[in-house]
Design goal:
The chain is α/β, with parallel strands linked by helices and about 450 residues long. It has 16 helices and 18 strands. This is DUF362 domain-containing protein.
């Protein structure tokens, strides 16, 4: 479907602002100010990132790798800060040690489940061959390397990685959007799902329905460590500003224990919403979170089978305004919202979204919420369905996305609440919301 047809479909699905206003009685809208979360961080200096990445590699043992052997570096599709620099640092350290590194995409079914699509995703993250200093080998071919002992589940891995003399996954350790466990997003998950490409990801998600990821990932990780030449991994932890705060080489023996400790650190540093009730998100996307909107931030996990949702926050309504450019139309998790702007539909790639949902066994994740024509219609629809609303007391936030939560637009009640908290400060006093033909005028806050 071309852009013109996509826009026609979006227009056909969206409810006009006038219809929403007539149904909701044109309620007054709260003013919005700007508040900021006070975070104490200690990121790695940008000019030192490559050095830290190299040191992480130097801490690993290559004793069983033949001189001049090939080392496969797994790189994913998430929006990791300084990713090209980190990968380049790893490449340089591997080369300096006398080995031949190459990168392979370890991203499951992302990129439309094609080798070229995954190469494109790496390139758009800045991971290009000139930038990192080595070859990128991108295919969707996998080989079976074993079967799990109890359930006889096939364990598969990227064939180019399996053929290498050593494997090193490079990934950020962070809370996962679909499950809670001793290890979540990180090195182990990259081995089990990312390195398994589309077939491995689909196998894992199907079996997780009964087995659960919290049990599956540790078991299969142990099997992969036994059967493949994995010399370790490069683990990354980011702070609340999504800046690199730790890069560490993790030996095979630490993939589970050390990763569990790093996950606890990542939970402590994860940015959170300071208030709930009604939240407007300007965008969602796969580089923001695997579910578009991070379920740990919004407190909703409606698509995972056999996994409980986080207890907090308790957001009553979510209005999503659009998709990120880097998500390439993948609207996985769009069903987390209660209302979406027609721009979401205009930017949505149905095929890419459904492939992701089918692979992850979470087809409810791409269910489309009610679609509205304008921002004003979306805000009115959300406000009119949370009970009796007083513009002086309603608790409403507007954020760029679930990753960028440093500065937030906030209603007067939340601005006043922020004055009483040491972890918040008021940046701008509330003023009336401005619209241009029903669309928000105030820019997205990305700080």
């Amino acid at each position: 479907m071309n852009a013109s047809d996509q826009q026609i479909a979006a227009d056909a699905l969206s409810v006009p602002e006038e219809t929403i206003i007539n149904a909701c009685g044109d309620p007054p809208l709260p003013e919005l100010g700007v508040i900021e979360q006070n975070w104490e961080t200690d990121p790695i200096a940008p000019d030192a990132v490559a050095t830290h990445a190299a040191r992480a590699v130097e801490s690993l043992s290559f004793a069983d790798v033949p001189a001049g052997g090939e080392v496969a570096l797994g790189v994913g599709s998430r929006g990791i800060a300084n990713l090209p620099t980190i990968v380049a640092g790893v490449v340089e350290a591997v080369s300096d040690a006398g080995y031949e590194p190459f990168v392979f995409p370890a991203m499951g079914s992302h990129g439309g489940a094609t080798g070229e699509g995954q190469r494109t995703m790496l390139n758009e993250l800045g991971v290009t061959e000139p930038a990192i200093g080595c070859e990128i080998r991108s295919t969707m071919d996998v080989v079976e390397v074993g079967r799990t002992p109890d359930r006889d589940v096939p364990v598969v891995a990227d064939d180019t990685a399996v053929a290498a003399d050593a494997i090193i996954p490079i990934n950020r350790v962070k809370p996962h959007t679909d499950f809670d466990g001793p290890v979540e997003s990180g090195l182990s998950k990259m081995l089990v799902i990312g390195m398994g490409k589309q077939r491995g990801a689909q196998i894992a998600h199907k079996w997780a329905v009964d087995w659960s990821f919290r049990r599956m990932i540790p078991e299969i990780t142990g099997q992969l460590l036994d059967e493949l030449p994995i010399v370790g991994g490069v683990a990354i932890v980011e702070d609340q500003h999504d800046e690199t705060t730790l890069i560490e080489g993790v030996p095979p023996s630490g993939f589970l224990d050390r990763e569990e400790e790093l996950l606890e650190t990542a939970y402590e540093l994860m940015p959170k919403l300071p208030f709930d009730d009604l939240v407007i998100f300007d965008r969602q996307g796969k580089e923001i979170s695997g579910q578009g909107l991070d379920t740990n931030v919004i407190g909703r996990r409606p698509f995972s089978i056999n996994e409980l949702a986080p207890e907090t926050p308790a957001i009553k309504r979510i209005f999503t305004r659009g998709l990120t450019e880097k998500t390439h139309g993948n609207a996985m998790g769009v069903g987390s919202a209660d209302v979406v702007h027609k721009d979401v539909v205009a930017e949505l790639d149905a095929q890419t979204s459904l492939i992701n949902a089918l692979t992850a066994s979470t087809i409810r994740g791409v269910k489309l919420p009610p679609v509205v024509e304008t921002d004003r219609a979306g805000i009115v629809a959300a406000l009119s369905t949370i009970g009796v609303v007083d513009t002086d007391t309603v608790r409403m936030l507007r954020a760029a996305d679930t990753m960028h939560l440093h500065q937030l637009y906030a209603s007067p009640a939340l601005v006043e609440a922020a004055r009483e908290r040491d972890d918040l400060r008021v940046v701008e006093e509330p003023s009336p919301i401005e619209f241009d033909n029903g669309q928000l005028v105030a820019p997205t806050l990305r700080e």
